[in-house]
């Protein structure tokens, strides 16, 4: 029987995990609402996974630097994820505090999955110059889009309050099976016993801060984009099409990244592109967010605001994180992303309540902060902005 190659298995891991995320993100809130819970309780239950990831991701990813294999962490996390999803309906019947505890355990289990796959993919790309991180990671974006589009139909067909957690249980189990079957997906360097843990360099810290600020500037559009558009008379069908446009732009960048000149595929250049596009998108949403003709190109900017920023962050980790600290670097990036995103979401909520589209404009200074940090990374000692292009976006 033919076994898929390492890159194909990494793509499959991305696809399965992002299918689960693509179902959980839009439909878990609906499942919680269907339980008849108070809105304040639902808000608490939705905030718990974000807070948990802030605390749990970096320590879990640091285990990789101590010798725990990323495939094993994905396998254990997926199995724990499936168990907690399976137990949620029963816990909900007993009371929301028990459900809250399961949601925290679920978030701990899921926290290292995407960072671990990124870790494996970056390791594969560093060892084979023919591989391209963006094209492997693209499978996750495609799966997320398809899950968004097909999830509603699938859950309607399954019916009932058990459909969401049971479907997520099956997807988490599928991720565990793929991880178990991917024993030889990539050879990883061995960390010597008792080795001193190296520090993360200043250049990497600046890139992490830049990426987190830029990604957090999505807080207003993620939280209130659909609400604002529908309040301006834009139909739900068009709202769905606008979100699909953003993800398609992201996929297009991942597919065509190698067409860019090599100098534009470096960590700092990619982060700078993402920051500039985020500022333009924030201002554009404030001025023209109620005009459908303007929203299509504004959503196309998602390819840069998210896609270029993601690629720049991964290029920075690959180029600047020292051996023995790559797992910690990956976990730190995820934790800082989550931390700043929480604050940005809270601020955008207050701004939206005060002035509607003002919420989008207040994201512009955050993106500008990301731009400043990216430029500072380019000037930092040892921050050769060309270092990452050949390892992450090579052909």
Query: What value does the Rg take, in angstroms?
Result: 20 Å
Give me the count of strands: 0
Helix content: over 70%
Stretches where pLDDT is under 50 for at least 5 consecutive residues are 383-390
Topology pattern, helix = H, strand = E: HHHHHHHHHHHHHHHHH
Compute the number of helices: 17
Q: Strand count, sense and closure of the main sheet?
A: none
User: Structural class, from secondary structure content?
Assistant: mainly alpha
Distance between termini? Answer: 29 Å
Shape: globular
Content of β-strand: under 5%
List the helices and strands and how they pair.
Elements: H1 6-34, H2 39-65, H3 70-94, H4 96-110, H5 113-127, H6 133-158, H7 163-180, H8 202-216, H9 219-231, H10 236-256, H11 267-288, H12 292-300, H13 302-320, H14 326-355, H15 358-361, H16 364-379, H17 389-392
Can you walk me through this structure?
- With 395 residues, the chain is mainly α.
- 78% of the residues lie in helices and 0% in strands.
- The protein has 17 helices and no strands.
- Helix 10 runs parallel beside helix 12 and helix 11 packs antiparallel against helix 13.
- The longest helix has 30 residues.
Describe this structure in a few short sentences:
The chain is an all-alpha fold.
Features:
395 residues; mainly alpha; 17 helices; globular
